[in-house]
TrEMBL record, chain A:
Subcellular location: Cell projection, Cilium membrane; Cleavage furrow; Cytoplasm, Cytoskeleton, Spindle; Midbody
MF terms (GO), sorted A to Z: GTP binding
One GO cellular component term noted in the UniProt record for this chain: midbody
Domain of life: Eukaryota
Site features described as Important for dimerization, chain residue numbers: 116
Family: Belongs to the TRAFAC class TrmE-Era-EngA-EngB-Septin-like GTPase superfamily. Septin GTPase family.
Protein name: Septin-2
Septin-type G domain mapped to chain residues: 1-266
Principal localisation: membrane
Record key words, sorted: Cell cycle, Cell division, Cell membrane, Cell projection, Cytoplasm, Cytoskeleton, GTP-binding, Membrane, Mitosis, Nucleotide-binding
UniProt cross-references to Pfam families, sorted A to Z: Septin
UniProtKB/TrEMBL annotation, chain B:
Location of region: Disordered: 1-21, 330-357
SUPFAM superfamilies the UniProt entry points to: P-loop containing nucleoside triphosphate hydrolases
Name of the protein in its database record: Septin-type G domain-containing protein
Organism name: Neotoma lepida (Desert woodrat)
GO MF annotation terms: GTP binding
Comp. bias (Low complexity): 7-16
Family under the similarity heading: Belongs to the TRAFAC class TrmE-Era-EngA-EngB-Septin-like GTPase superfamily. Septin GTPase family.
InterPro entries assigned to the protein according to its UniProt record, in alphabetical order: G_SEPTIN_dom, P-loop_NTPase, Septin
Gene3D superfamilies: P-loop containing nucleotide triphosphate hydrolases (3.40.50.300)
Domain Septin-type G per the UniProt entry, residue ranges: 44-315
Keyword entries, A-Z: GTP-binding, Nucleotide-binding
């Protein structure tokens, strides 16, 4: 999931990370539309395959976050989305068919921090505190090419201090095992030291120093996306790839279990709820059946009255009535009426109830 | 349309178009008036009040320092112990800058805390009331029976609004603020921290902002309706095409090709502030200081201040509006915030105030 104010380069970064174009026909809404909008959730799923390994990637975008003048409610939508995914997983897990559960839970949330501030904004702090128990937060400093090196260091330190001050739990990389090789340990150490990552995203190929690189072309130079001296894009990508499994595990073991225990404690017992739902559906179906039967009874009464009125047709009608009685037990939405017409062939009619008193009967001549 | 009366010391009313020009037989030496003006101006000096508005971290303080090439404003990062200001506070600092014997009394008003909260509703109210308070002070001074010779002018002549470089379009907060303020003060929007946008992104952003401004009928400085003659119009339309300027501020100097320039040094290059190919800081500086400083003051005095004055005099309308002094009732804040029906003739170009300020 990517969360952040508009214009921080979230979509560009996702495209750069996964080397795809997730938003081919993107229309950025104008200012007038932005005034009306509330936060929306847009989930797009792509399947990426590399060397036989398939990855089903779902990116959840949150356009409209931080746009409004009053942003007090902007994270309610997001929190309810996260909860909804947990809820669905819980439901599937408690169901009968557990082999094909699709895991739509949010494994990782990239929170984009604006490089223009002096640290975290009140909105950032409030949002992170609201979701740090539900999802792994990876803070990212967006548009890092506006910062000089010193400014970047200062900002990173500021952010880390503020995160600690407000007791926000961000995702921490697990320490390398002692039996891993030195390179990996060194890499992990470097990664840990660079949080929050300051990134620049781009999918444009620029010519620089004779080779084509992905980057941004400015009049004063070229910012290369994959140059570790320019920004931390490579580090972010490494972290994501090597720790994808760990992110999923932490989501399952920590956040999901938290949610589950909260949910089960809070809402009574979840299993009972399910049964109640099924009972409800059964009751509804029975009520419908009863209605159909009443309708048929009414029709019967009508026919009887007609019969009393005209005896000439009694034969057919009587036959009709008998068949109707027989067919009463069919609990379908339409009753089929079969009777012998005067010609002696079988006619099947399907009675489609249109309203309480009136039914439409389709005849099929066999 | 309101006629602009120039506040030059020699004429107190506009020159009538009916006065026929007189033929001169020789040179009399009228140009000496210009020298007299110069000497007088050198003695009294100039005043200029500028207000910078924008979210924190957009480089407002650095921009002011760069504009006036001095440490007018000590840009300091707020400490961790000092919490972010919960409400909007306004800080004013006055400096006297001297160049070639000419003194400029510069007052910079900063607005930390603007747009930083979670709920930014009505965050423009403190700014509006500050501007109106300055007008009120001037009005009170003007209405005194024995006035000072030179009324200290604390009215805000120009408000520079910093738009964050999202690259998309104006945010709802920007639009609300600009809409309200462009009726009270000269507003110059600029794209802050423009070194995060490439040239194409910058142009696209600029055209979107211009569209937004047009759609919402926001009239920023230089206002089209105040162009006096064809020269003004040409000059101002060129400026209008390039509003908002994409600026970068810097107060450190670096060595580039042997020259010492103001700029920001990064791993991939040095962004020169005064290089037109890099950013449009020079345009902003020329607009504010070199070409339109007096114009900004004139419009503030003749249009914005006059509008305020008419509004206030109408509110206390017990006495007929004639020459002489009027005894004004002190303004209550509520009256100013939501003006009642206003005489429309002087406001043909300004849009009506049916929505509340």
């Amino acid at each position: 999931m990517v969360v952040g104010e508009s214009g921080l380069g979230k979509s560009t970064l996702i495209n750069s990370l996964f080397l795809t174009d997730l938003y081919p026909e993107r229309i950025i809404p104008g200012a007038a539309e932005k005034i009306e909008r509330t936060v929306q959730i847009e989930a797009s799923t792509v399947e990426i395959e590399e060397r036989g390994v398939k990855l089903r990637l779902t990116v959840v975008d949150t356009p409209g976050y931080g746009d409004a003048i009053n942003c007090r409610d902007c994270f309610k939508t997001i929190i309810s989305y996260i909860d909804e995914q947990f809820e669905r997983y819980l439901h599937d897990e408690s169901g009968l068919n557990r082999r094909h559960i699709i895991d739509n839970r949010v494994h990782c949330c990239f929170y984009f921090i604006s490089p223009f501030g002096h640290g975290l904004k009140p909105l950032d702090v409030a949002f992170m505190k609201a979701i740090h128990n539900k999802v792994n937060i990876v803070p990212v400093i967006a548009k890092a090419d506006t910062l000089t090196l010193k400014e970047r260091e200062r900002l990173k330190k500021r952010i880390l201090d503020e995160i600690e001050e407000h007791n926000i739990k961000i995702y921490h990389l697990p320490d390398a095992e002692s039996d891993e090789d030195e390179d990996f340990k060194e890499q992990t150490r470097l990664l840990k030291a660079s949080i929050p990552f300051s990134v620049v995203g781009s999918n444009q190929l620029i010519e620089a120093k004779g080779k084509k690189v992905r980057g941004r072309l400015y009049p004063w130079g070229v910012v290369e996306v994959e140059n570790p001296e320019h920004n931390d894009f490579l580090k972010l990508r490494t972290m994501l790839i090597t720790h994808m499994q760990d992110l999923q595990e932490v989501t399952q073991d920590l956040h999901y279990e938290n949610f589950r225990s909260e949910r089960l404690k809070r809402g009574g017992r979840k299993v009972e709820n399910e049964d109640m739902n099924k009972d409800q559906i059964l009751l509804e179906k029975e009520a419908e059946l009863r209605r159909m039967q009443e309708m048929i009874a009414r029709m019967q009464a009508q026919m009887q009255m007609q019969m009393q009125g005209g005896d000439s047709d009694s034969g057919t009608l009587g036959h009709h009535k008998m068949l109707l009685d027989k067919k009463k037990s069919i609990p379908d939405k339409c009753c089929s009426i079969k009777f012998l017409n005067t010609l002696g062939s079988v006619t099947v009619g399907i009675e489609v109830p249109v309203s309480e008193d009136f039914s439409f009967v389709l005849f099929f001549f066999l | 349309m309101d006629e602009r009366r120039s506040p030059s010391p020699c004429s107190s009313r506009p020159s009538s178009p009916m006065t026929p020009p007189c033929e001169m037989l020789g040179s009399v030496g009228i140009e000496a008036v210009l020298d007299q003006l110069r000497i007088k101006a050198m003695k009294t000096g100039f005043e200029f009040n500028i207000m910078v508005v924008g979210q924190s971290g957009l480089g407002k303080s650095t921009m002011v320092n760069t504009l006036f090439k001095s440490k007018v404003w000590q840009s300091s990062l707020p400490n961790l112990e000092v919490p972010m200001p919960q409400t909007l506070e306004l800080h004013s600092m006055t400096h006297v800058i001297e160049e070639k014997g000419l003194k400029l009394k510069l007052t910079v008003t900063d607005t930390p805390g603007f747009g930083d909260q979670i709920n930014n509703d009505k965050c423009w109210d403190p700014i509006l009331s500050y501007i109106n308070k300055q007008y009120e002070q001037y009005l009170q001074e003007e209405l005194l029976i024995t006035r000072q010779r030179h009324i200290p002018d604390t009215r805000v002549h120009c408000c520079v609004y910093f738009v964050p470089p999202t690259g998309h379009c104006l945010r709802p907060l920007d639009i609300e603020f600009l809409r309200r303020l462009c009726r009270t003060v000269n507003v110059v929007p600029v794209i802050a921290r423009a070194d995060s946008l490439t040239i194409e992104e910058r142009d696209a952003f600029r055209s979107r902002i211009q569209q937004n401004l047009k759609t919402h009928c926001i009239d920023v400085y230089p206002q089209k309706c105040f162009d006096e003659d064809i020269n003004d119009r040409l000059l101002n339309s060129k400026i209008r095409e390039q509003i908002p300027f994409a600026v970068v501020g810097a107060d450190r100097e670096h060595l580039v090709n042997g020259r010492c320039v103001l700029g920001r040094k990064t791993k991939w290059g040095i962004i020169e502030v005064e290089n037109m190919a890099h950013c449009e800081f020079l345009l902003l500086r020329d607009l504010l200081i070199r070409s339109h400083l007096q114009d900004l003051k004139d419009i503030t005095h003749n249009v914005h201040y006059e509008n305020y004055r008419v509004l206030r005099l109408n509110e206390s309308h017990q006495l007929p509006r004639g020459p002489g002094w009027v005894n004004l009732a002190p303004a209550s804040p509520g009256q100013l915030m939501s003006p009642g029906p206003v005489k429309a003739r002087k406001r043909a170009n300004k849009d009506s105030r049916e929505d509340e300020c």
